[in-house]
Automatic annotation (TrEMBL):
Name recorded for this polypeptide: Photosynthetic apparatus regulatory protein RegA
Response regulatory domain residues: 12-126
Any one GO MF annotation of this record: DNA binding
Function: Member of the two-component regulatory system RegB/RegA. Involved in transactivating anaerobic expression of the photosynthetic apparatus. It is a transcriptional regulator that is responsible for activating expression of the puf, puh, and puc operons in response to a decrease in oxygen tension.
Residues that bear 4-aspartylphosphate: 61
CDD domains: REC_RegA-like
Length: 182
């Protein structure tokens, strides 16, 4: 059984994810760590809980069936500016990580993340640097992430993105059509 971390005076935790088996497993694991857990499977349910009972901690999936998890992050931030919020996603990209942190998330983790990773992210002190990654991104992945970020900043306009990256539009289209490198 994991050690119970110091959660402070308010151990309330909101978990928002539309993957029900994952949500149940994570809720059970976080309860064992001492959190007082509430769960939601949609943006609407997450925002309702965030409005009625703003949690001290939150873990929110980025892509939910009824919208974007960042809407829940915003709702929590409005009611509880000191909340520690971790955004989870199976679609890790630097552009979405930046958006999550700008909107008020404390940290950003790619799935699959286990309860220990999530707890560490929730309780991390902002003045301490995280350890270097075990498996850093490859140069190809960094390039792909940069292209994706510029593409998003150009409102998904291929011609404008190609112009800004100084590459041929068809080359960019081929890159965008491929899956991300590991």
């Amino acid at each position: 059984m994991p050690d119970k971390p110091d959660l402070g005076a308010d151990p309330s935790l909101l978990l928002v994810d539309d993957d029900e088996p994952f949500l149940k497993r994570l809720a059970k694991a976080m309860e064992k760590r001492g959190f007082s857990v509430e769960t939601a499977e949609s943006v609407a349910a997450g925002k309702a809980i965030a409005t009625a009972r703003p949690p001290a901690y939150a873990v929110c999936d980025l892509r939910l069936g009824d919208g974007n998890g960042l809407d829940v992050v915003e709702a929590i931030r409005e009611r509880r500016p000191d909340a520690r919020i971790v955004v989870l996603t199976g679609y890790g990209a630097i552009a979405t990580a930046v958006a999550a942190v700008k909107i008020g998330a404390t940290d950003y983790l790619s799935k699959p993340a286990d309860a220990t990773d999530i707890t560490n992210a929730l309780l991390a002190r902002s003045d301490t640097l995280p350890p270097p990654p075990e498996n850093p991104m490859s140069a190809d992945r960094v390039r792909w992430e940069h292209i994706q970020r510029v593409y998003e900043l150009c409102d998904r306009n291929v011609s404008e993105t190609a112009r800004r990256l100084n590459m041929h539009r068809r080359t960019l289209q081929r890159i965008l059509a491929k899956r991300s490198p590991r």
